[in-house]
Amino acid sequence: MHADVHLLLHGIRAAELQEEAARSCPPREDLRTQLGWTLIELGLRLIRQPPARAARIA
Fold this sequence. Notes:
The protein is mainly alpha-helical. Helix content is 74%, strand content 0%.
């Protein structure tokens, strides 16, 4: 196979793989938003818990 044909086929396959990856991955902003709200919820749960009592040393 000639090098220029190999390069052309490689470029076509790379473009196909990039399109497939773009379709299968969720939008990044949605993931960031979901993670952000999860961290906020976790922080609110930690705030609501009463502080642990310090152990008494005898």
